[in-house]
């Protein structure tokens, strides 16, 4: 066992936050299928609404307004003729009758009158031009005279100027807030319809996505989709997916049964072979080598079983210090192994205690096998952890030779053991692959990187079980080191 000064950090370890990027990279701009379908349908409905409005304007609205303008011109001409050919007493009675029964008011036009021209848009300008063409170029068409709104038509009778006031609704033009109300109603109904259609389209795909995620997590029983839906295409997809999930479930059951059978069938003759070796071989050295080979075969079987372990894990609150201590204890008393831990007290993570112990055991076995210092032959392992947001960041590093950067992504691949020196060592190449799968099953992330001061560093991001206490928020650098 080396002294504590030998295992202290030579320099501050690389911050845990600087671990390699997450394995899953999402696109920078992500839009759900519901909103994408909704926007496309909304644009389609809006385009149809505008096209309908323009068609109505061209085929119905403008001709009706122009026809109304012709009627107003006829009303002005008839009023002018009636006033010209009536005496003064009959003229007064005629003006009163027009105001009461036809809502047409005729009044003298004074030079001091102020008015606003009836030319607010192309349609009103067209009406004004049509009235002037029928009544003469000296005709005035106004929308307001002396502050009084309405449709005012200025004409002359025997050289005397007059105003004729009538209701603008005679033209069939919808004014004021009526257009806004109709537009808002049409837009609201269109958007509501687009939302309903988008939800109807998105709902089966959302269920399919959820079922696929459950199958990915190994929960085949919760992934059954409705096979009686009315839509034939969706029904066929659901039936195909359910059959696929059933097939995968059967394959998973067969795999578990096969692994259990292989384990049982291999361990029994190996145990028998070990017993016979110890009893029949006289040479102690040969007996020791044969026993070591049998132990190696048992270890390889364990690695295969760990890698092929099902994905279902029941997470619970686990004390990280206890897990690490148990993993260190399982390595035995190796005089060339020194483990330094910097983990805040009562650091709790969500996971399975056995699975977490398997993770740390595999990492320390990997460091023990490949991470020895070239000169002293001592393996120094440093484990640090700290809380950040809803995660516990863990870093485990050795002081060996490290790994060429181009080989780092391949270290977590099954049966990959790096360079020639590593390939010559005994092992299956499954240790780091098991660690990565186990961390992912626990809902965390795992990555490897070379340390700036030498050696290989494993970065883990585990889910935090509960909010930290005040004393748990210390940085790993500030915690007293514990050496085993």
TrEMBL record:
Molecular functions (GO terms): ATP binding
SMART domains in the record: HAMP (SM00304), HATPase_c (SM00387), HisKA (SM00388)
Entry's localization field: Cell inner membrane
Compositional bias of kind Basic and acidic residues: 465-476
EC nos: 2.7.13.3
Membrane topology: Multi-pass membrane protein
CDD domains: HAMP, HisKA
Domain HAMP: 199-253
Stretch list, region Disordered: 457-484
Annotated Histidine kinase domain residues: 261-466
Membrane-crossing segments per the record: 33-53, 179-201
Main location: membrane
Catalytic function, reaction form: ATP + protein L-histidine = ADP + protein N-phospho-L-histidine
Stored PANTHER family: SENSOR HISTIDINE KINASE ENVZ, SENSOR PROTEIN CREC
Protein known as: histidine kinase
The organism of origin for this protein: Hydrogenophaga bisanensis
Source organism phylogeny: Bacteria, Pseudomonadati, Pseudomonadota, Betaproteobacteria, Burkholderiales
């Amino acid at each position: 066992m080396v002294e504590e000064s030998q295992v202290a950090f030579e320099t501050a370890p690389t911050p845990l936050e600087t671990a390699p990027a997450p394995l899953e990279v999402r696109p920078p701009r992500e839009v759900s299928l519901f909103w994408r379908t909704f926007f496309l349908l909304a644009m389609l409905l809006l385009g149809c609404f505008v096209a309908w409005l323009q068609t109505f304007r061209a085929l119905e609205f403008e001709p009706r307004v122009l026809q109304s303008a012709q009627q107003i011109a006829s009303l002005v001409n008839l009023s002018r003729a009636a006033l010209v050919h009536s005496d003064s007493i009959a003229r007064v009675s005629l003006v009163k009758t027009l105001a009461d029964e036809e809502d047409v008011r005729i009044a003298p036009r004074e030079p001091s009158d102020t008015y606003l021209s009836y030319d607010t848009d192309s349609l009103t300008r067209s009406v004004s031009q049509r009235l002037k063409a029928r009544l003469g170029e000296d005709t005035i068409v106004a929308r307001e005279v002396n502050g009084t709104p309405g449709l005012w038509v200025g004409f002359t009778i025997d050289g005397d100027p007059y105003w004729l006031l009538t209701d603008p609704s005679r033209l069939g033009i919808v004014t004021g807030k009526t257009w806004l109300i109709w537009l808002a109603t049409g837009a609201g109904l269109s958007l509501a319809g687009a939302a309903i259609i988008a939800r109807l389209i998105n709902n089966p795909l959302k269920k399919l996505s959820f079922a696929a995620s459950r199958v990915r997590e190994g929960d085949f029983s919760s992934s059954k989709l409705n096979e009686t839906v009315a839509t034939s295409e969706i029904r066929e997809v659901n039936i195909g997916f359910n059959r696929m999930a059933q097939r995968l479930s059967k394959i998973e059951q067969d795999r578990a049964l096969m692994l259990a059978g292989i384990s049982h069938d291999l361990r029994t003759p190996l145990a028998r072979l070990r017993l016979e070796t110890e009893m029949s071989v006289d040479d102690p050295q040969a007996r020791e080598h044969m026993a070591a080979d049998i132990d190696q075969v048992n270890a390889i079987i364990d690695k295969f079983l760990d890698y092929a372990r099902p994905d279902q894990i029941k997470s619970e609150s686990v004390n990280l210090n206890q897990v690490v201590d148990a993993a260190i204890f399982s390595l035995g008393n190796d005089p060339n192994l020194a483990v330094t831990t910097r983990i805040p007290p009562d650091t709790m993570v969500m996971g399975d205690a056995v699975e977490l112990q398997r993770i740390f055991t595999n990492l320390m076995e990997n460091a023990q096998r490949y991470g020895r210092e070239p000169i002293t032959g001592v393996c120094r392992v440093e484990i640090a952890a700290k809380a950040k947001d809803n995660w516990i960041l863990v870093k485990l590093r050795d002081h060996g030779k490290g790994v060429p950067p181009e080989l780092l992504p391949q270290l977590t691949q099954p049966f990959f053991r790096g360079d020639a020196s590593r390939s010559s060592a005994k092992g299956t190449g499954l240790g780091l692959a098991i660690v990565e799968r186990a961390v992912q099953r626990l809902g965390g992330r795992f990555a490897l990187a070379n340390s700036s001061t030498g050696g290989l560093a494993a970065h883990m991001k585990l889910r935090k079980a509960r909010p930290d206490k005040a004393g748990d928020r210390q940085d790993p650098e500030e915690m007293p080191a514990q050496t085993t």
